[in-house]
Automatic annotation (TrEMBL):
Alphabetical list of InterPro entries matching this protein: ARM-like, ARM-type_fold, CPL_dom, PUM3, Pumilio_RNA-bd_rpt
Protein's recorded name: Pumilio homolog 3
Ranges of residues in domain CPL: 66-200
GO BP: any one term: regulation of translation
Gene Ontology CC annotation, any one: nucleolus
Signal sequence region: none
One Gene Ontology molecular-function label: mRNA binding
Pumilio repeat feature ranges: 55-91
Keywords: Repeat, RNA-binding
Organism: Trichonephila clavata (Joro spider)
Pfam short name (any one): CPL
Length: 271
């Protein structure tokens, strides 16, 4: 690509010429690829932070709701991930590998860029999840952020847990455990608690510390809620398992009357 085949001086000129237009470029079909190439080849990450990331941060919400903008932000967190970047685009970017003017170790460059965007992206979740949890696309992007970011995720987890402090009722179809996007987000965050994390913060533990007594019991009243309870039991985290079992104590008879699969599996987990 052009930016990877130019001199260091020319790359810096390209970066500085983007002033005030970075967000617009990031949301363009072809323009966003120039940014990806710059992230790959420009060793001066301080320059990138000053002239590119600073502008991206000023438009995070808008970028997070744009297909190309999300690719740019995801690339900063985990470059060349085929889950977010098309393989054909990755192959184009690889053409710039091994150029003579990029000296910094790619992993070091990537780590520096990730550290610059991590906190603003976590803040994006904290500030917007209460309004956008019904937006499936935003929930999926929140999962990307929480999977690949560095730093303390506890406050972001807290903002997500706050979505379910009220009991579920069958009349409330917008409850976060019933909405498809937010349900998937909860499910994945719970599943990930089985894995090691850099900050040792477990979403399930934040969840049980946040959700008031008897709220988990209300989750039995829908299939998706029952499956989330199954997931919490499967984390095998002692405090989490104990809390769920305490709250569902004596509920097997009621669960047997439920017609959905989640209740059936939950009964087995409570044996």
């Amino acid at each position: 690509m052009l930016s990877s085949n130019t001199s260091v001086v020319d790359r810096k000129v390209i970066v500085k010429s983007m002033k005030t237009f970075v967000a617009k470029i990031a949301m363009e079909e072809h323009g966003h690829m120039v940014l990806l190439a710059l992230f790959d080849c420009l060793d001066d990450t301080v320059l990138i932070e000053k002239h590119i990331i600073k502008e991206l941060v000023s438009h995070l919400l808008e970028l997070s709701q744009n297909i190309h903008g999300k690719k740019v932000l995801s690339y900063l967190l985990n470059p060349r991930d085929p889950h977010y970047i098309h393989p054909d685009v990755i192959n184009i970017l690889k053409q710039g590998d091994g150029n003579q003017t990029s000296k910094k170790d790619p992993e070091i460059r990537s780590s520096e860029l990730k550290s610059m965007i991590a906190t603003p992206l976590l803040d994006l979740i904290k500030s917007n999840i209460s309004n956008l949890y019904t937006d499936n696309s935003f929930c999926l992007f929140a999962l990307v952020i929480l999977q690949h970011t560095v730093g303390n995720r506890k406050e972001a987890f807290q903002s997500i847990a706050d979505l379910v402090v009220e009991p579920y009722t069958t009349e409330n179809k917008k409850h976060a455990i019933e909405n498809p996007g937010s349900h998937f987000m909860f499910k994945q965050l719970i599943v990930r608690d089985k894995e090691e994390s850099n900050d040792n913060v477990k979403f399930s533990e934040v969840l049980i510390q946040t959700v008031p007594k008897l709220v988990f019991k209300s989750w039995m009243d829908c299939n998706r809620g029952a499956f989330l309870l199954v997931g919490l039991l499967e984390t095998e985290l002692p405090t989490v398992v104990e809390r769920i079992k305490q709250e569902l104590d004596g509920c097997k008879k009621s669960l047997k009357k439920k017609p959905y699969k989640g209740a059936e599996i939950l009964i087995k987990k409570l044996q």
